[in-house]
Amino acid sequence: MVTAEHLETHRGALTGHCYRMLGSVAEADDAVQETMVRAWRSLDRFEARASLRTWLYRIATRVCLDALEARSRRERPMALGPAGTVDDTLVPLPAERWIEPIPDAHALPGDADPAALVALRQSIRLAFVAALQHLPPKQRAALLLTEVLGWSVAEVAEGLDTTVAAVNSALQRARATLAARALEPAADALTDAQSTLLDRYVAAFERYDVDALAGLLHEDATLSMPPFPLWLQGPADIAAWLAGRGAGCRGSRLVPTAACGSPAFAQYRAAADGGHRAWALLVLELRGDRIAAWNAFLDVEALFPRFGLPLARNFADDR
After folding, report:
1. Distance of CA 255 to the CA centre of its chain
2. Are 115 and 257 within one domain?
3. Residues 84, 232 contacting (CB under 8 angstroms)
4. Segment 276-317, tens digit of pLDDT
5. Do 145 and 174 belong together in one domain?
6. Domain, as residue range, for 206
């Protein structure tokens, strides 16, 4: 007999799937909750021909497809226009316009075998999730069900209430779209050089050594700051931002975390009345031994609680 506890054991895996479909951790949580409600109400119709997890994925996929009918595509700032300058005006856009970061612990099932975990981690990286948003919803679902979850085309056709021929056609178009975006595969684990890079990044940030930070960047590195559409490219422009309009970050402290299968840090900025206040969730995308993308998500009141992070810290207490 399937119980509510049995359903709950699949929440993490379903959250990762819904996040890949929707590009939003908040919407993914809502979709998983709706999946649980629909599953509970339909338990009498559950047939053990399929596993409970497969059945739940089918429900979750339908929930996501329903949700995608009512909203526009989420993006990263780099998709909205050319790189800006340090003098551009900052005008925030609504939260629903942006791809959101997700905690690794929230999206990766604890019972996955190591090989599957590698694939799942790759599938929540920001670049991949952003590319998925450019696929029509059913193409997105077909691609994720086959290439991330390992379903057969016949299983996908049954899950999406369509034909094998339609699924094959959707997969062909989806793969062509992603190939055109030339996504760069990320390493399965940090190399020694990348671990050293991150240590140098934290040390340079906390002493606010702009030249040292610029030296850690790829020549085409990007800095983005959702909810602002402005983004900058190249070490010179990023350094100019840090030394100028970003100089209020001097005195910040960084706390390591993990988001979107990537190294990430909670940035706490020094507060005028003492202590430090949450300022940004920093997600770094690495290429070789340099930083290729520095993503600073500023909606800390929504994001930090999801990562189990406080909105204020007194680092003197850590000594």
Report:
1. 18
2. no
3. yes
4. 999 999 999 999 999 999 999 999 999 999 999 999 998 876
5. yes
6. 192-318
The token pair that represents 282 in the structure block: 């920093």
- 181 versus 46: the higher-pLDDT residue is 181
Residues 207, 232: Cα–Cα separation, whole Å: 22
CA atoms of 44 and 101, how far apart (whole Å)? 36
175: number of Cβ within 10 Å? 15
Domain identity same for 152 and 64: yes
Q: Is residue 245 part of a domain?
A: yes
Q: What is the pLDDT of residues 239-251, one digit of tens each?
A: 999 999 999 999 9
CATH of the domain at 141: 1.20.140.160
Tell me: pLDDT of 265 over 70.
Answer: yes
Gap between the Cα atoms of 23 and 133, Å rounded: 7
Highest average pLDDT, of 38-47, 181-190, 192-201, comes from 192-201
Q: Among 47-56, 115-124, 151-160, which stretch is predicted with the lowest mean pLDDT? A: 47-56
What are the angstrom distances between the C-alpha of 216 and each of 145, 196, 205, 223?
37, 11, 11, 13
Same domain flag for 204 and 145 = no
> End of a domain among 129, 156, 180?
180
Beta pairing class for 312-313 and 290-297: unpaired
Q: Are residues 67 and 149 in the same domain?
A: yes
Contact 96, 299 (CB under 8 A): no
**What is the b/e burial string over 108-127, where b = at least 16 CB atoms within 10 angstroms of the residue's CB?**
bbeebeeeebeebbbbbbbb
32 and 123 inside one domain: yes
Contacts of 153 (CB under 8 A, 6+ apart): 146, 164, 167, 168, 171
Length of the chain: 319
Q: Considering only CA atoms, which of 67, 68, 61, 64 is closest in space to residue 159?
A: 61
pTM beyond 0.90: yes
Q: Assign residue 238 the CATH number of its domain.
A: 3.10.450.50
